[in-house]
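Record minuted for completeness.

…
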Amino acid sequence: MYRYRLIMTGLPATALIAVPAAAQTMDVQVTIPRMSTAEYHAPYVAMWMDGAGQPARTLSIWYDYDNKEAGGKKWLAEVRGWWRASGRSLSLPANGVSGATRPPGVQKISFPAAKFAGLKPGAYNLVIETAREDGGREAVRVPFSWPAKPGQRFTAAGKSELGAISVTFR
C-alpha cells in the first residue's frame, strides 16, 4: 500500500492502493484447417466460457445465420456441448454474439472486458467447439484464470476440425 498526498488537486491526503492492471481485452485466434473433401462446408463454431461455479457464458457463435427460413438454426444443436451448456436457451441471432461461418485459415476475434462483467475470480475454460456438415466435431478447452493480467497468453490445439488456438489478454 502506498500513500500519496494529492496536492495538485487540493484534496486532503488520501490512501491509494496499488492494484495490478487487469486485462481489458481477450484476443482469440482459431485456426480452421483446410479439409480436402469433395464437398466442403464451413464449420459452425461456438465459443463459450465455463468454470468457477458460474453458468456457461456464450461469447460467439458462427453459423449460417442468414439462411432462408432460419434453416441454419436447426443445425446448431450439432454443436452439442455448447447447445447443452447454454445454446438451447439463447435467442438467436444474438446481438454481439452471432456471426457468419468462417473459411479455413486463422480467424481472429476480440472480446472486450464488458463481456466479462460480473465474472467472479477463479479458474475458467474458454471452450471452442466446432461441428461441420458431412464432417466431424471437436471441442478444445483452453484453461485460464480470471482476472487475467495483460500479456498473459494461453494456447491449445485441436486434432482434426480445429488447429492451433491462442488466447491473449491485453
Observations:
- The first strand starts at residue 2 and ends at 4.
- Residues 1-19 have pLDDT under 50 and may be disordered.
